[in-house]
């Protein structure tokens, strides 16, 4: 599936599968607007979130194994030196997930 560049702000997904059995590539969310989107108990293995706006996103009990979050944004920059981070990730499988270079705070 391909949600690249889609407007998915405030969208809610529950018990959804975003990967086909045996697939070598997951769903594309590249450069999508996912602000305040919610994913609960979803299969998102190998999903590509590259460049997506993920500020305020929620992942609960999701399989994110091998997902790519390179260049994704979990922050809202309000000035050159000030920003706010917001994401809720709980009970998820993050094995092999690419979060390199991300700005996340506890």
TrEMBL record:
It holds the Pfam family Pentapeptide_4. This is QnrA family quinolone resistance pentapeptide repeat protein. It comes from Escherichia coli. The lineage of its organism: Bacteria, Pseudomonadati, Pseudomonadota, Gammaproteobacteria, Enterobacterales.
């Amino acid at each position: 599936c391909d949600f690249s560049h889609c407007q998915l702000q405030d969208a809610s997904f529950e018990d959804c599968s975003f990967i086909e059995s045996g697939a070598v590539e997951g769903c594309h969310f590249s450069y999508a607007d996912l602000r305040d989107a919610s994913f609960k108990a979803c299969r998102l293995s190998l999903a590509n979130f590259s460049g997506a706006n993920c500020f305020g996103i929620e992942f609960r009990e999701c399989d994110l194994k091998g997902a790519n979050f390179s260049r994704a944004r979990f922050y809202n920059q309000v000035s050159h030196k000030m920003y706010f981070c917001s994401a809720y990730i709980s009970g998820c499988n993050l094995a092999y997930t690419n979060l390199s270079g991300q700005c996340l705070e506890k």
